[in-house]
Design goal:
By secondary structure, this protein is mainly α. It contains 14 helices and no strands. It has a domain of 100 residues. Helix 13 packs across helix 14. It is globular. It starts with a helix and ends in a 46-residue tail after the last helix.
Length: 264
């Protein structure tokens, strides 16, 4: 979407304003709503380096919120089982979406999620118009999460391409309820992304297969499975199955773990 010269000039003046400069020094209280909306932290490249602390300095309410103690119909949350509580790997009472992904027991133990893992900024220029313009589909709504990110952990269990006779709920006993019965040697190079704790996941998976199943079909939001990259593993066959011929061999760049090398 193109902007006029005067709009660009106004935006530049806003960036140079004393209030916005105060934001860069950590004084968020000096900003009004519109200056905060145009804060550089909401745009690339700053969003790529934004810490949770920076995000939560303005958006703290997402961790302060609590679920309703009872539904509008009068059902107590203590008597109801939320969909994410159906596996015994979930501990404690019901929690809000953001708390489950950032500060919940399972998140702390197995994940290293950051606000920017899901959120990649908010550009007001890309907000969809009201009423919607059906002829313009270029709006990306960047503050909204790309569904493919959710799909990585909330997709369906792809038993059709895994040599498993049916859904894991029906087949688990055939495999001794043990994912690692096969995956100790097959696709053994896994979870190497910057929002997961790979070693902790492997350890927990050995103790309870629901740790694996929880993110691979047990808490699915979608009817499809995520097409995970096929990172090479020791003993990997040279021949690529038909279903995997279009799969990448690396994770998306922004999810890769930064490798620190010693200075020589």
């Amino acid at each position: 979407m193109k902007t006029s010269f005067f709009a660009q000039l106004a935006f530049l003046a806003l960036l140079l304003s004393p209030s916005l400069q105060a934001a860069d020094q950590g004084n968020k209280g000096a900003l009004d709503y519109h200056r905060a909306m145009w804060d550089p932290i909401h745009f690339k490249p700053a969003i790529d380096k934004a810490s949770n602390e920076q995000c939560l300095s303005c958006h703290r309410e997402i961790l302060d919120r609590k679920p309703l103690k009872q539904s509008p119909a009068g059902v107590s949350s203590e008597q109801a089982l939320a969909w994410y509580q159906t596996l015994d790997t979930y501990e404690g009472p019901q929690e809000t979406f953001h708390r489950r992904h950032l500060v919940g027991p399972l998140a702390v133990k197995l994940m290293d999620m950051k606000c920017t893992t899901c959120h990649q900024g908010e550009n007001p220029r890309e907000e969809a118009p009201i009423p919607p313009d059906v002829n313009n589909t270029d709006f990306t709504l960047r503050k909204q999460v790309n569904p493919k990110i959710c799909l990585m952990c909330h997709g369906a269990y792809p038993y059709q391409v895994m040599g498993v006779p049916g859904p894991w709920e029906e087949s688990r006993e055939t495999f001794q309820n043990n994912c690692l019965l096969c995956h100790s040697t097959i696709r053994s190079n896994r979870h190497q992304v910057n929002f997961l704790k790979a070693d902790a996941i492997e350890k927990a998976g050995k103790e309870n297969s629901d740790v694996c199943f929880g993110c691979h079909g047990g808490r699915k939001w979608y009817r499809i499975a995520y097409p995970y990259p096929r990172h090479p593993w020791p003993g990997m066959a040279k021949e690529v199955p038909d279903w995997a011929k279009d799969r990448p061999t690396e994770s998306p760049v922004r999810f890769r773990i930064e490798r620190k090398t010693a200075n020589k």
